[in-house]
Amino acid sequence: MASNEKGVAGDNLESTLQYAKKVFTERLGGSPSVVAYAPGRVNLIGEHTDYNNGCVFPMALQRVTVIVGRPLSSGKDCRIITTAFSEDNDVTFSLPPPPTDEEYQDKTSRMPLSSPSWTRYVKGVVALLSRGVSGGVPPFEAVINSSVPLGGGVSSSASLELSVCLFVEELCRRVGVVLPTFTNPERALLCQRAEHMYAHSPCGIMDQFVCMMAEKDKALFIDCQPNNDGTFTAEGVPLDLEKEGLVVMVTNTNVKHNVGGGEYEKRRDRCYAACDKLGVKTLRDVKNLEEIEKLKTSLSDPVPDGPTEYQCAVHVVSEILRTIEAKEVLKGGNFRHFGKLMNESHESLKNVYKVSCFELDCLVELARQDERVYGSRMTGAGFGGCTVTLLKKEAVTETQKRIQEGYVNEKGEKMNATFFLATPSSGAGIIKNI
């Protein structure tokens, strides 16, 4: 979604919800009858691995997207007022028709893009939910508020999708419209498919999965290699930060370099091309770096920009191995080693996969100048967005001050970073007692 750190009231569920209800009453009158929410997430380690069937290790944030609303008794259009997006904040639109069976079964199907861009996520989820529903989803009016930083690599899109998914499910239940019964993994997959089809973003499963299924006070290790029945394996690992006097700090560069939508696809396609040469279905099937070294020459054909197929394979395989190690390290309570793996991850993303940028590197280098900082790395797709830092709680103020004073762009111009401390939180839900 568009990058924008628009100020909204609150940085947790309660305050974000209260502000949404306030706007609803002021702009639409009365009170909402349905409330749903979904958190953002920060990935601790395991970047650009999910679409290679690798492993990821995120945690949900206390920052959430909230949607409050009610069904409309007449008409066919929906009205949504947003406080979270830089684009039009009061939009009326017709409910989209569901995709045909042929369109849905074709994994490459892409539906026309709507405007403003945030409506693509809403319409996509509604359209997929309405498949097979006689008469479709009922029209509604709603307010969306979010404390998840937009365009920061902390899953503002998945947060929006899942909050809308739960909202529409509950809305239908209230008015007697029968939808299929979804499990939490099925909801995550539906929202991922909506993002593919309606926002043209070929994301992996991580964001939707953790935003739906995260557990409080735990990081969620997700194996993105599908099981035979199409499900995924996930394991909540206790993240006892308080016991160790540690915190997770998210730092926003407040920049998003316009490198074009093709950079993500370029790397994904080169990963897939490397698989063909390595004779494997996915890079998850490569067990060690030695297998890649044997074919280094054939994987190193010159490319006009970005990483070679060899570099893509090296990053992904090494990152998968790091992430698996990180799970075991965290289980053993060795946060120092966990931080070391975070640092190694950033160096690979910067120098091998080439998805970092000057501002991200600047924040990471400034953060690491204190031994009380265990690890710091970029998080998310890259080219801007956020860093994630594991550090002693006592070092937070000093670290933020050092970063703010030293943060500059490539031209040496002073930049402004924003920070928040992340609390491992639970996944998406419905609030019954409003």
UniProtKB/TrEMBL annotation:
<dbReference type="InterPro" id="IPR013750">
    <property type="entry name" value="GHMP_kinase_C_dom"/>
</dbReference>
<keyword id="KW-0547">Nucleotide-binding</keyword>
<dbReference type="GO" id="GO:0004335">
    <property type="term" value="F:galactokinase activity"/>
</dbReference>
<dbReference type="InterPro" id="IPR020568">
    <property type="entry name" value="Ribosomal_Su5_D2-typ_SF"/>
</dbReference>
<keyword id="KW-0460">Magnesium</keyword>
<dbReference type="GO" id="GO:0046872">
    <property type="term" value="F:metal ion binding"/>
</dbReference>
<keyword id="KW-0119">Carbohydrate metabolism</keyword>
<keyword id="KW-0808">Transferase</keyword>
<keyword id="KW-0067">ATP-binding</keyword>
<dbReference type="InterPro" id="IPR006204">
    <property type="entry name" value="GHMP_kinase_N_dom"/>
</dbReference>
<keyword id="KW-0479">Metal-binding</keyword>
<protein>
    <recommendedName>
        <fullName>Galactokinase</fullName>
    </recommendedName>
</protein>
<dbReference type="Pfam" id="PF00288">
    <property type="entry name" value="GHMP_kinases_N"/>
</dbReference>
<dbReference type="Pfam" id="PF08544">
    <property type="entry name" value="GHMP_kinases_C"/>
</dbReference>
<dbReference type="InterPro" id="IPR000705">
    <property type="entry name" value="Galactokinase"/>
</dbReference>
<dbReference type="InterPro" id="IPR019539">
    <property type="entry name" value="GalKase_N"/>
</dbReference>
<dbReference type="GO" id="GO:0005829">
    <property type="term" value="C:cytosol"/>
</dbReference>
<dbReference type="InterPro" id="IPR036554">
    <property type="entry name" value="GHMP_kinase_C_sf"/>
</dbReference>
<comment type="similarity">
    <text>Belongs to the GHMP kinase family. GalK subfamily.</text>
</comment>
<dbReference type="Pfam" id="PF10509">
    <property type="entry name" value="GalKase_gal_bdg"/>
</dbReference>
<dbReference type="InterPro" id="IPR019741">
    <property type="entry name" value="Galactokinase_CS"/>
</dbReference>
<dbReference type="GO" id="GO:0006012">
    <property type="term" value="P:galactose metabolic process"/>
</dbReference>
<feature type="domain" description="GHMP kinase C-terminal">
    <location>
        <begin position="329"/>
        <end position="408"/>
    </location>
</feature>
<feature type="domain" description="Galactokinase N-terminal">
    <location>
        <begin position="23"/>
        <end position="71"/>
    </location>
</feature>
<dbReference type="InterPro" id="IPR006206">
    <property type="entry name" value="Mevalonate/galactokinase"/>
</dbReference>
<keyword id="KW-0418">Kinase</keyword>
<feature type="domain" description="GHMP kinase N-terminal">
    <location>
        <begin position="121"/>
        <end position="214"/>
    </location>
</feature>
<dbReference type="GO" id="GO:0005524">
    <property type="term" value="F:ATP binding"/>
</dbReference>
<dbReference type="InterPro" id="IPR014721">
    <property type="entry name" value="Ribsml_uS5_D2-typ_fold_subgr"/>
</dbReference>
